[in-house]
Design goal:
269 residues, globular, alpha/beta, two-stranded antiparallel sheet
Amino acid sequence: MAEAAQNPVNQQQKIIVTNKHGEKLVGLLHDTGSGDIVILCHGFRSTKDYTVMVNLAVALENEGISSFRFDFSGNGESEGIFEFGNYQKEADDLHAVVQHFLQGIRVASVILGHSKGGDVVLLYASKYHDIHTVVNVSGRYDLKKGIGERFGKDFMEIIKKEGFLDIKNETGGVDYRVTEESLMDRLSTDMHESCLQIGKECRVLTVHGSDDEVIPVDDAVEFSKIIPNHKLHIVRGANHCYTSHQTELASVVVDYIKAALQQDKATSN
C-alpha cells in the first residue's frame, strides 16, 4: 500500500466502458485493491486529467481507496460529439460506468463531480437511487443562470435567428457550437425538482468555494435547503478551480468519503 501511495502512476489502468449509445468512454482506474471505487466526474469542457480530478484520485489512493476518473462522451479521449447541455446523457454515461463495475469484484460506492459534474452526480442520484454517497463540488443550482456571462447577453436572439451560436477560441477559430436543441437541454434541466427526488438514504456532501467566480456560493446553500441528507462545507477563499485550495478540498472530500464507507461497512455487518 505504501508503494502505491508513493508512486500512484504505476497503479493506473485504462478501462473502456461502452455507453448505451455504443460510444466508448475512456477512463483511468487508480487501483488500491479496495472493494469500493469512487467515480470522479469532470466538468464542462474538461477531462479526466483536470487537476481537481487527478489530485482527488491521488488523495483517495493515499488513503487506500480506489477511484475511476473518466471522460464523458464527446470529451477527452471518449467517443461521441461534444454538445453543450447533455446533462441527462452524462448521467446515463455515469450509469454505464457504475454498471460496468458491478460486474466485477469491486463496487462503485461513491460518485463525485466538479462543476457541471456536480450537477451530473446529483441528477444521477435523483434518477437511479443505487449509489448512497454523492459529493457535489461546486455544482450549479440554477442552470438558467451563467449562460449570458459565458455567451453574451444577446445569445438567445442569435440562436433563435441562426439556429446555433459558434463559440470562438482565442485564435478566432470555432471552439464549439451551441445549437438551440442543446441550449434547451440545459434550460429544461431543473436541479431543484431533481434534488427533491433524492432519497433520505442517499447522503450528499456539497463543497463550494466562498470566492467562486463562476458559480456563486449561494447555489451551494440552495442545495442544502432541499436535499434531505445533506452536509455543506464552504472552503473559505477558494475559487471555482480551487487553485490555491487543492489540499483543503482533498482533505474535506477524503474524510467524508472514508467516514461514509466505514458507516456502510458497519451497517452491512
